[in-house]
User: Which sequence fits this backbone?
């Protein structure tokens, strides 16, 4: 069955718009965070349990494999498929805090960090704390039995699970929280029920295997199925409930889970300990653990070297000798009164340790975050500096803690033996859990064989020499599936095979990721990584960027843009796939370029700081003909005329809107675009009025701040929903005067701009010309940097702060010596201390624009709002609105998609006012929510007026 035929058949079962069969969609979903790549035959965006049942039936009837995928952050290939890939993230985001935070109900699409944010007011969190918690979802956390840095064994997904709602391949749905759940399973699945009891009887009859299972699950272990569930529970429904944890989607679909929570300790005492050698570091693990340390993270010298030059890393690391090692240690408590006890516990343990340098312990939250960045930056730092075209493989093994030093030594020896000198080792030492990172080339057979030989030796080292675990917390996955029997032995593997046959006899659920008879499955279906562009070459396809991307539910995410770009590079060298390449080239402009907001937020969550927006801008530039670049440069020279034209157009548009139904106006602009074959701005309310003249201000002699109203403020006035009152510039000038901070608006601001409108479209030369003109004037206005310059919209302030490299060498010193003030920091740090709020709003909603986030001003925005309101709400779905200057008029579906989740939270908040700091973002949020968004300046003005 071809993808088109398959899609047509599935479209009769599922809403056709949620069945993806275009080549660009299949390529985009062919990769997860691992080194594996499988092209799905179709992708289905499932939305209900009923649809899951239909998909199971279809899979069985047509013998097509089925794989469930949520965030796709899995590191071992669990979320890729050459069958039907079923996405279960976007429609499965349930988060319900229960019993005052003691338990939480979650859907498989709920992001781990979002669950913790919901629990934080109750002083609780979920037990698992994987490093990917800001991106991974609860479906993956449960399916892989995730743990992390502090949770150890006792607080992992298995041990904190309370109940599940799951769907078996037969379609049977069980809610294990119901009292009759076991009897329901017995009635509806009698063979499975009796088979589970038979497995338990046979297992209990094998005392040696029982002892081995209990021993192996006292340490971190996710290798194979969770056989401890068969020993820990005697009722089949409870066995099955816990067997599903760590089953990687091979037994059933987890539709919902209830987990018991753990305390979120607010008091922390964090330290970095440096040792002359790994043996001294490992000798410190048990004393620190016994003293009550919540986290003990080990880092070998290679791992420390990978981050030693990064900002904020303690200088002591740079001078460490070869062979040195470090431990990052944290003690935690719930009550402030226990802080002294933490210090005493740490001091008692430290007294017995052989340290290379004095310990670096701190109570300061900022310093603690810097220390944790040392540890958390290791995986990305290796990914960032690896050679173009090489892969990144991270594995996690576990050893008995008393033998950890020997294991690290032997593991390092394996790296040298197989030519992986760049490898680093770090991990959760308290649990004997080591991560190692390799960056091999997997683009040719010799390199793959070298990696295969390394894996064979690794398996012998872990399972024979140390009797450890080949997988500690990332799930078995494709990389370790061939070696489950090597670790567990024939008796245990027989139990696992019988279990799988009971539930999925045809091996149609995510085949090959836990049990795999192919001894070379771990080196099959590997990604080749062609050298393309710098942003593409750095990408490790981890997917951390996806949860904050505004186009994630419309077209492609940053990771998927890169995946498609790599596929196009592969195909360009393969003449026999010309049709596929043409199909990708046809859809790439809209899916990858037109619908990218180029907001740069992806870089804030990317482990290697890739700003996919920069790639989009470069590709947009290549799409422009030479004459278009010339027109852009011409526009810079005549920008003041363009401003006047825009004001006239907005004024005329207001008259037009009064005489024509808005829907008719919108249809007319869409028809014009189709007729011309280009994208034209669409008429979509609310459309702003034309801006009036700028207010008069004091002269430069008396001014404390130079005020440069953005071109948006100079052209766009109030929205129809706003009351007739002063404009943003007029309000800001009056507010500053009241605060005793007079500002001056130079008379020649017309024609000045941050250049972002040109940058976002890929007109680099025009962008450079504009910022040069603007900074030359700023230098003159500010008297050579003596005065700061205020910009009243955050995106424009960010654009001026970050344009240094575009200026000629002789002007960069001007940029360095001018302080650009964003309106948020100006209002929060300069005006607010001089203005006492006289009244408070009951509740206000904030939208931190992307540039506020990138400038680190989120806290200032909230602090300003909290001074002016009793309650401040930042909706859970708040993120980039996707308006991106003009995308909201050119590609309005991007803004609609990007704001859908946030809009629901805004409407539920029922607030008095809605505030932000970017004019077009405010227009986009007003359109999405039906609530009028305004600059945060208006809230401060209202709260401090008589």
Assistant:
């Amino acid at each position: 069955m071809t993808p088109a035929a398959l899609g047509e058949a599935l479209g009769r079962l599922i809403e056709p718009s949620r069945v993806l069969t275009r080549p660009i969609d299949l390529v985009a979903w062919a990769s997860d965070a691992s080194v594996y790549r499988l092209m799905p035959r179709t992708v289905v965006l499932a939305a209900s349990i009923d649809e899951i049942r239909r998909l199971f039936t279809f899979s069985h009837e047509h013998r097509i494999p089925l794989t469930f995928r949520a965030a796709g952050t899995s590191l071992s290939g669990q979320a890729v498929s050459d069958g039907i890939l079923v996405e279960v993230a976007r429609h499965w985001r349930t988060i319900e805090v229960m019993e005052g935070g003691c338990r939480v109900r979650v859907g498989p699409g709920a992001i781990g960090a979002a669950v913790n944010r919901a629990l934080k007011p109750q002083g609780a969190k979920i037990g698992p704390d994987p490093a990917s918690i800001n991106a991974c979802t609860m479906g993956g956390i449960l399916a892989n039995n995730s743990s992390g840095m502090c949770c150890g064994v006792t607080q992992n997904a298995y041990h904190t699970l309370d109940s599940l709602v799951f769907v078996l391949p037969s379609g049977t749905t069980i809610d294990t929280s119901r009292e009759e759940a076991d009897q329901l399973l017995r009635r509806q699945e009698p063979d499975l029920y009796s088979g589970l009891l038979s497995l338990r009887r046979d297992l209990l009859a094998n005392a040696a295997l029982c002892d081995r299972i209990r021993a192996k699950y006292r340490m971190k272990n996710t290798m194979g199925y969770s056989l401890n569930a068969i020993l820990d529970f005697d009722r089949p429904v409870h066995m099955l409930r816990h067997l599903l944890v760590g089953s990687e989607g091979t037994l059933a679909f987890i539709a919902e889970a209830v987990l018991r929570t753990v305390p979120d300790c607010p008091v922390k005492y964090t330290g970095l300990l440096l040792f002359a050698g790994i043996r001294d570091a490992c000798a410190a693990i048990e004393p620190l653990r016994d003293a009550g340390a919540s986290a003990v993270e080990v880092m070998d010298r290679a791992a420390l070297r990978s981050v030693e030059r990064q900002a904020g890393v303690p200088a002591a690391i740079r001078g460490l000798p070869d062979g040195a090692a470090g431990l990052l240690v944290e003690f935690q408590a719930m009550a402030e009164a226990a802080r002294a006890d933490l210090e005493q516990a740490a001091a008692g343990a430290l007294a017995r340790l052989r340290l290379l340098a004095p310990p670096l312990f701190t109570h300061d939250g900022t310093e603690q975050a810097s220390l944790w960045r040392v540890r958390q930056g290791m995986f990305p730092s290796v990914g960032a500096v690896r050679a173009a075209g090489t892969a990144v493989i991270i594995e996690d093994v576990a050893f008995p803690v008393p033998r950890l030093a020997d294991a690290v030594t032997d593991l390092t020896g394996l790296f040298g033996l197989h030519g992986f000198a760049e490898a680093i080792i770090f991990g959760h030492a308290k649990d004997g859990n080591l991560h190692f990172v390799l960056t091999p080339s997997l683009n040719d057979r010799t390199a793959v064989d070298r990696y295969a030989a390394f894996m064979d030796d690794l398996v012998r080292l872990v399972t024979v020499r140390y009797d450890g675990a080949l997988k500690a917390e990332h799930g078995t996955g494709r990389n370790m599936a061939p070696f489950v029997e090597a670790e567990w032995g024939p008796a245990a593997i027989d139990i696992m095979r019988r279990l799988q046959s009971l539930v999925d006899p045809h091996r149609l659920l995510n085949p090959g990721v836990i049990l795999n008879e192919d001894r070379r499955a771990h080196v099959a279906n590997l990604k080749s990584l062609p050298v393309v562009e710098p942003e593409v070459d750095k990408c490790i396809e981890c997917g951390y960027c996806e949860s904050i991307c505004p186009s994630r539910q419309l077209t492609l995410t940053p990771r998927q843009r890169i995946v498609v770009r790599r596929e196009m590079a592969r195909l360009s060298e393969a003449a026999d796939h010309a049709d596929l390449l043409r199909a990708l080239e046809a859809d790439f402009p809209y899916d990858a370029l037109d619908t990218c907001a180029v907001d740069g937020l992806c870089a804030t969550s990317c482990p290697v700081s890739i700003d996919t927006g920069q790639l989009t801008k470069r590709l947009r530039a290549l799409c422009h003909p030479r004459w278009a670049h010339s027109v852009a440069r011409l526009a810079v020279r005549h920008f003041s005329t363009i401003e006047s034209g825009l004001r006239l157009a907005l004024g005329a548009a207001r008259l037009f809107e009064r005489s024509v139904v808005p829907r008719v106006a919108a249809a007319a602009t869409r028809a014009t675009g189709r007729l011309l074959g280009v994208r034209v701005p669409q008429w979509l309310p609310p459309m702003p009025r034309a801006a009036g003249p700028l207010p008069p201000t004091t002269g430069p002699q008396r001014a404390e701040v130079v005020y440069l109203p953005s071109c948006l403020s100079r052209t766009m006035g109030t929205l129809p929903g706003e009351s007739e009152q002063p404009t943003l510039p007029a309000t800001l000038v009056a507010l500053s005067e009241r605060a005793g901070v007079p500002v001056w608006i130079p008379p020649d601001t017309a024609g000045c701009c941050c250049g972002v409108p040109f940058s976002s479209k890929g007109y680099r030369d025009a962008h450079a010309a504009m910022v040069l003109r603007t900074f030359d004037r700023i230098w003159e206005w500010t008297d050579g940097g003596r005065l700061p310059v205020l910009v009243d919209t955050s995106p424009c302030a960010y654009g001026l702060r970050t344009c240094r490299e575009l200026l000629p060498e002789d002007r960069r010193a001007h940029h360095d010596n001018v302080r650009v003030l964003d309106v948020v920091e100006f209002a929060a740090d300069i005006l607010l201390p001089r203005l006492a709020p006289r009244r408070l709003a009951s509740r206000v909603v904030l939208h931190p624009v992307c540039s506020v986030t990138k400038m680190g001003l989120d806290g200032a925005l909230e602090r300003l709002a909290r001074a002016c309101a009793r309650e401040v709400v930042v909706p859970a779905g708040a993120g980039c609105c996707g308006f991106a200057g003009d995308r909201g008029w050119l590609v309005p579906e991007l803004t609609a998609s990007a704001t859908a989740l946030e809009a629901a939270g805004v409407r539920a908040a029922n607030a008095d006012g809605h505030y932000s700091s970017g004019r077009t973002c405010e227009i986009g949020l007003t359109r999405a929510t039906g609530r009028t968004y305004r600059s945060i300046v208006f809230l401060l003005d209202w709260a401090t007026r008589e």
Notes: The first strand starts at residue 19 and ends at 20. DSSP finds 43 helices and 26 strands in the chain.
